[in-house]
Amino acid sequence: MAFGLIALVLVAEEGRASDAGARPDANATVNPTDLRWLPGLSFGTGILVHERDADSQSLERGFEEGDSKALFALFGASAEVSTPRISFLPTRPRFFARVDVSYSVDNDEPVLNEGDPGNPIRNPENDVAAGNPVTGVIDVGTSLRVKSEPVILSGGLGLAFSREVAGRTVRLRPSLEWMYQRDEIAIAFGAAETEGSDPDRCAPCRTVSAQGQTTKSYHSLGPGVEVDVDATRVGDFQVSMFARFAALRILGDREVNLRATGSWFTRQDQVVNGQNIILSIDPAVGREDSVVRARFRRDPWSYAATAGIRIVWSPE
């Protein structure tokens, strides 16, 4: 794609040069800025939105499912370059190429959350504090959480169409957008069962905890559109304001499968002076390990909106 862009520019400049040789006054009507490559930097902030869902399956907790919407705040910078105007295209637009580096702020909400799994499993604090018999445990259940790595890479290739509106230059910039993002997916699982004769009492009891984690990378492509308006000039630099929207579809596999295994332990607790004391924790005899399986899937489309300022080297 990059070689094709350069080839188009060279053809355009060759055609411009031949026109100038055929018409002695051709250069008199050409703005020197139209013949320049224009490098620039931009700084912006925005949001990135996508949906995701997950489910889990275990013998102790059964089948669970959940979904959530991810909403990220983005802060980033871009480097770009625009070619000379392409004379053989209507309205003589510029080609441009842009590379972005963004820092994302993730809210780290769980996609699936059944119960409140933790490690280690512990007895209910309210029962212990009141001196009541321990009748259960907390930190049991299944949870799947997803956290995106903070650095997101993206970029775009497109055309910039310019027009004067109310004395200011306004550019409409349709583009093909690309984004690279990486997720960390983690599952936590906890379960307990009584070893006594009372099914409502878990002292002593058997407990199990399991955790698993993996990562998944995503490449996305999709259309984008930007509006850029000149704001002011500072020496050889043109400062403008821009707003951009992109819809990006994930390329390839969007699904992640996790598996976590945990060993069972027999635990004896006792309440002493309002405090829960763990008397012993030993491997459970004759109890097979427990397995929890989970599946995480991203929605194919992500949506990004960004606004900021652009500084372009453009001598008059």
What's the arrangement of secondary structure elements?
Elements: H1 2-22, E1 38-58, E2 62-82, E3 94-105, E4 110-115, H2 125-130, E5 141-148, E6 151-165, E7 168-194, E8 205-234, E9 237-251, E10 255-262, E11 264-272, E12 275-283, E13 290-313
Antiparallel strand pairs: 1-2, 1-13, 2-3, 3-6, 4-5, 5-7, 6-7, 7-8, 8-9, 8-11, 9-13, 10-13, 11-12
Would you give an account of this structure?
There is one protein chain. With 316 residues, the chain is mainly beta. It is built from two helices and 13 strands, in the order αββββαβββββββββ. The protein has helices at residues 2-22, 125-130, and strands at 38-58, 62-82, 94-105, 110-115, 141-148, 151-165, 168-194, 205-234, 237-251, 255-262, 264-272, 275-283, 290-313. It has an eight-stranded antiparallel β-barrel. Strand 1 (38-58) and strand 2 (62-82) form a beta hairpin. The longest helix is centred in the first third of the chain and has 21 residues, at 2-22. The two termini are 30 Å apart. The model is unreliable at 1-28 and 125-134 (pLDDT under 50).
Terminal Cα separation, in Å? 30 Å
The H-and-E topology, N to C, reads as HEEEEHEEEEEEEEE
Percent of residues in beta strands? over 45%
Strand arrangement, major sheet:
1-2-3-6-7-8-9-13
Biggest sheet layout: 8 strands, antiparallel, barrel
Low-confidence stretches: 1-28, 125-134
How many strands in all? 13
What is the averaged pLDDT score? Answer: 83
Please give a quick description of this structure.
With 316 residues, the chain is mainly beta.
